[in-house]
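Hey everyone, long-time lurker, first post.

I ran two proteins through the pipeline my lab uses and got sequence/structure pairs for each. Pasting them in order. The first:
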Amino acid sequence: MLNIKGSIVVIISSIFYSVSFVADAVEKNASNNAALQQALERYSKQYSQEKNNYKLIYNLAVIHYKLKNYPQSKSYFLKLLPVDAYHLLAKYNLGLVANKQGNKKEAIEWFRKINAHQHKAAITNTGIASSLKKLALVQLNKLGVKVAANSSDIKKKDSLKTYLYLKYGYDDYVTDVNIVDTLGNPVSGDNFINLYGLITLNLDQISRQMKWQFSYYLKDFDDYNLYDYDLISTDLSKQFRRDNWRFLLRTGFSQSTYGSTDYQSVTNLELKSEYSHPAKDKLSVRYRYDDISSDDPLYNIYEGNSQRLDFQYNKSLLAHKFRVLLGFEANDRADKIVNGVVDRSYSASRTKIQLSWFYRFNPSWKSRIKYEYRDSLYNDFNTNPADLKVRDESREMTSLQIKYRIKKGWWWLTDYSYTDNQSNLARYGYTRNVLSTGVSGYF
């Protein structure tokens, strides 16, 4: 194998493939164009039958690079990003491709990602991560980004991170009987401010992969204060990894206020396991138990416990990401008693399916379309003379999100959602439109 300091290429053979770390002199060591074209035809034909042959994909990417077919080279390197064994190689080469295309900003971003990457032990032990770091630093210096080439330059995981989003929006569902139009009918719809802040503290000094989090959520309406809601929560989590498996144990506590009244105190326990396939498929199972206490007699109907079991599958394909979630929920809650009869029951069993499609137009623009169907059966019989039946509901919600990257770590968000809730008890049926826009980011 060649061993020239500076970059990475593939030694191509008609008999076998092998990957080597060599100098950034692809053109200098390239075979003539005729030989490369022959190799390209041969490997392209083989690729049509072996779509998951990652060595073959890498070789095709490098051949296109040597032939200066940079868009095609980029498309093949992008296919390797989800593959652990090629992830860092792909990032480095994507930086080289971007530089050849004259996109200096994108090239710098790829090389910086290598330094910021938390390398897996399986990769680091081969020396690949260390070599790529040094090569990326050389490229950054060439591009005018002055970074000292020593081991301390690998970005360490910040012990403290803060996330924030602030949005302003409109909700056409909220209403207040005390606010009426000229005909005396209740007016619906109000503007709101939405705020969420999260502080995450890594406790690796106590135990590896342990975290403490504190968060605050606020939804404040301009006029209909009965719908104002805030939530303060804290939790402690511990993560375990074994090969492609990740396990999470989390426990937390939260308190909330609804309108001007104390609402609920909730203690929860969450268990999650996730399996990640090298091709970037992810399958996870999550169980959560909530012990719910009402902080005001007005909300006693919600007191009790709730259990949720979710199955989620994620699939990534270049600029696309797909997510399917199947969820089950069982609640053991109180009943609302009015004049000695059960006016409302909250012993609901729920099933939901959620489909999401994420699409990345480019590094600055992203989108998400989500559809959710939820079926709820309130198992206890309502003895209110107006009901005399078991409440049964189905809810459909469709949402769209557009994201624009303002700068590293910060995004401008615009969200729209439409909800249609249908119930066999007419008073619980409704439609809802919510539109909001704002910013989010880490600092």
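...and the second, right after it:
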Amino acid sequence: MDVTSVDRAYVEIRQRIVDGQYPPGQPLSEVTLAQAHGMSRTPVREALAKLCHERYVERMPGRGFFVARVTVQAINETYEVRRLLEGWAAARAAEHATPEIIARLRALAARQDDAATAAEAGANNRRFHLAVAAAAGNQLAGDLIEQSLAQIDRFITLGAGFAPFKTGAAEAHSEIVAAIEARNPAEARARMERHLDRGLTLMRDSVVTGAFTNVNAN
């Protein structure tokens, strides 16, 4: 076994979970996954342990690994983490972003309305939020934000739909960039937090209207 095979197993299994190919509650057999991904069981086992730590996978004693269910608690906690980290990142970007970085953020914000498909809109949204995180200059925070964004992608794939999230996103992103450009950390944080609060509301509404399947209210 080498690090490359573990990394490949992790990336491939996580992507299939995010895409919904491995739906919530599905058993994840080491043998089956090893065959599906063309590798031995050892890197699969290591990948599952990491995915369990990141809450994509659940381990049930005596039963093995399963794809983590979507729960209201998981949605709330993901947005709480995003609010803390991305609010801080926006404030930090207002203090340190160079004119070149601000120009890139402005361009990414403008591209949100240009997307022709939900997938393209989601990719543009991800690029913007990761660019703000990068502007903060903290790699660990950026990695955690990226993990949180992947969870949001999973929630959307499993039923929330991207259309409601796209409405008003370009304007919200532009307001965040304006606060960063004005070198106003408090306003940048507030704009980001407001944007994420709206996302949480939309996600909760999706649960109430029954858009999700396999959602646990706990």
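Reply from user beta_strand_b:
Welcome! Quick read of the second one: Residues 94 and 182 are 7 Å apart (CA to CA). The mean pLDDT is 89.
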